[in-house]
């Protein structure tokens, strides 16, 4: 029995907003709609191919037996060493949004900074792991893991990550920490720990720290040590 033929895509063009909605095909694509901008749609002749998606909602087609992903096509990324990141994140179905304005070519490190929590992470927070009853915040900088402190709770370590990561990347995802989970004393402890760690790391990054969620209050500029 031969392979079942893919249903053709339906392309819906929104001329008002200059967008194109792609009704996907394939086992994982049925009922899913990808998005791109009209300029990219025309430039890359997207309607000439049949588009489907992986189970993680990455949109692709097959050309001469090779998978070609829509986010790499639209971004123009032909460098196998570089990644194309979805700026709005990769969790859920966000990878269906393949507008040029939502994509950026980046390194693997930058891509990881904007990734979701790994499935095998038992703490529920990015860059937080448990060791001997303590919760550590570890962030990779220039291909080397940097330690930013050990704490009594995963929320403290997650808060540590939220302080540091905006200074390392223009695009990132913060840990979603319940607002009532940390006291002022705990946040101050994390703040002081982060500043101490930056004093020990050879860094030119500018560190902005805050004592309440989303309220920046202090700037500490580090020069190369």
UniProtKB/TrEMBL annotation:
<dbReference type="InterPro" id="IPR016177">
    <property type="entry name" value="DNA-bd_dom_sf"/>
</dbReference>
<dbReference type="InterPro" id="IPR044925">
    <property type="entry name" value="His-Me_finger_sf"/>
</dbReference>
<protein>
    <recommendedName>
        <fullName>HNH endonuclease</fullName>
    </recommendedName>
</protein>
<dbReference type="GO" id="GO:0003677">
    <property type="term" value="F:DNA binding"/>
</dbReference>
């Amino acid at each position: 029995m031969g392979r079942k033929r893919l249903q053709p895509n339906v392309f819906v063009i929104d001329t008002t907003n200059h967008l194109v909605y792609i009704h996907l095909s394939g086992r994982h694509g049925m009922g899913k709609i990808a998005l791109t901008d009209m300029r990219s749609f025309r430039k890359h002749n997207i309607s000439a191919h049949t588009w489907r998606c992986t189970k993680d909602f990455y949109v692709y087609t097959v050309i001469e037996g090779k998978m070609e992903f829509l986010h790499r096509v639209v971004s123009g990324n032909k460098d196998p060493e570089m990644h194309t990141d979805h700026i709005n994140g990769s969790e859920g179905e966000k990878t269906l949004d393949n507008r040029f304005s939502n994509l950026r070519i980046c390194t693997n490190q930058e891509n990881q900074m904007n990734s979701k929590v790994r499935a095998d992470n038992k703490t529920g927070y990015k860059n937080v792991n448990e060791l001997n009853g303590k919760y550590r915040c570890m962030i990779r900088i220039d291909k080397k893991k940097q330690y930013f402190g050990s704490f009594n709770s995963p929320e403290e370590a997650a808060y540590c990550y939220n302080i540091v990561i905006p200074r390392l990347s223009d695009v990132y995802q913060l840990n979603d920490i319940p607002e009532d989970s940390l006291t002022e004393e705990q946040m101050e402890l994390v703040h002081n720990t982060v500043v101490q760690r930056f004093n020990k790391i050879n860094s030119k990054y500018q560190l902005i720290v805050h004592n309440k969620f989303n309220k920046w209050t202090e700037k500490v500029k580090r020069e190369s040590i």
